Fold:
Amino acid sequence: HLATSLPLPSERDHLRPRIDLIAFMIDIKSKYSLKNVEASLAHVDASFFLGKVCFLVTGVGRVNCCSVEMNAIWKLGEVYCSPLLFCELELEGIRVATAQRLLRMLQICAGHVPGVSALSFGSLMRNSADY
Structure:
């Protein structure tokens, strides 16, 4: 399910399936994109930041067109203890690889991968980014 911002409308709460992963998309060409994500973060339950949130940063192939400071993006991941995925959606191979990574993250967060929890996976993703 897609939403342009949070909070989600409450009138359909009883129909909404369980939320296993929240992927916030940030387009580095748009300051509005970052501001929208920052405003939406206030509506996410703190328990989701234990491995069930990631930031998908698009437009990284055109760094010369950036409207968003990369330091602000890195800080988001650090402050919210959530992994950052960087991609260029206009390139099919990268788009497919990113979709596969997101699907694998979703499988882990939903509990469909034995022996791996969302919390341990999120920790592993953050630690691998340090190297």
User: Anything to note?
Assistant: The radius of gyration is 15 Å. The chain has one domain: 18-125. The mean pLDDT is 85. The CA atoms of residues 26 and 57 lie 5 Å apart.
